[in-house]
Amino acid sequence: MSRTQIEQWVKKAVWSQPVSDPHTHTCPPVFGASPNPEGLLLWGVDELVTYHYLIAEVFRAVPATKLPYEQYWAMSKTEQADHIWKHLFVERTPIGEACRGVLTALERLGLDPNEKSLTKYRKWFAKQTPDKYIDKVMQIANVDLITMTNPVFDDQERGIWERQPKAGGDPRFAAVLRIDPLLRDWPGACANLSSWGYEARPDFSGKTVDEVRRFLVHWLDKMRAVYVATSLPPEFRYPDPRNPAGDRFIRECLMPVLAEKGKPWAMMIGARLRVNPGLREGGDATGIADVMSVINLCHDFPRSKFMVTMLARENQHELAAAGRKFGNLLPFGCWWFLNNPSLVEEITRMRLELLGTMFVPQHADARVLDQLIYKWEHSRRVIAKVLVDKYVDLTLSGYTVTAKHVQRDVALLLRDNYREFLGR
Ligand code: FIX
Ligand code: ZN
User: How far apart, in Å, are the Cα atoms of 132 and each of 135, 172, 251, 423?
Assistant: First the structure.
């Protein structure tokens, strides 16, 4: 079995396999679409170029001492995009991953990524319509399912679900009940719940447990959510004697509801929010979190399912090792600051060696629809490279690798492991 033959099989399998994307921040046009400032569907070149990763980067090129944050935020979206294009794509080489991604997306859409201004791109995008453009992006990216992030505590998001009966009806998308405040700000979350007619009290008195469960069930059913997700700080611990309310919420509300519904909890651990508030969504940082807390949850709730992605590179090996101990733990994706070729390669290679094909290597985490094109192009390239090496290693042990093995494995990694874990 030659390396060249294996490379051909892997290339064919990885690029032809439709991906079911486990985590994005995009949504169908019924949620409103840019350039409507109220629109939750972000798409097109001005959104691509003003991605919060690039906002953070442009403030390295033109520091806030020269261009105060508020002055940037007072600019129009077009002016912001022109500013970023000038400083990161024209006056500097767009060699970073977030810049390179924009170029890949433009190029795969049939546009020349070497323009010195955004004018031509804007003319092209002005001819697109959101709904058809979603199909185009999914076709280019070869994505067959886009999993959303639906933060129910966000007034705009909740309002759409309450006003739009069709909010969850687009078969291209799957909803996710995102409930961060319940674990990041329990008292505030209880105040919200009370204002929505749920008798929830921070001290768990009265009918709090039943009412929080009722809230979770209501929104899981309304959204037909495929899982519940939370972003958690590096300090998250389970159990946590310093946060008895968090422990009680997990034990008495979240776990029973998810067990009843047979749905996973996606824990996204390690995001330290707004370390630089001036950057707004781009102002978050990463921190080393506690894998033992994940182990405790997998051990204490053996019938529950935990999808876990962690933000610190330092947590990845321990998380993969924990995955060897618990079949109800599914490591997924190379999240955020890890979604760079060098780290995707390191993490995917390690996961294949520790977990075989029993994990989910990537999620796009796209905030702008068009990013699906580059996030999956760049990830497929790295996943293919690692798979070739591992199959060659296998042949050196005398195993006969076939095209069928490769196709089956790639389907597991890019679609079936995720869908099976959801029970779909
Ligand atoms: O919590 C999350 O889902 C994070 O992915 C986002 O909050 C973050 O801003 C992001 O989009 C990172 O890529
Ligand atoms: Zn995300």
Answer: 5, 12, 44, 29
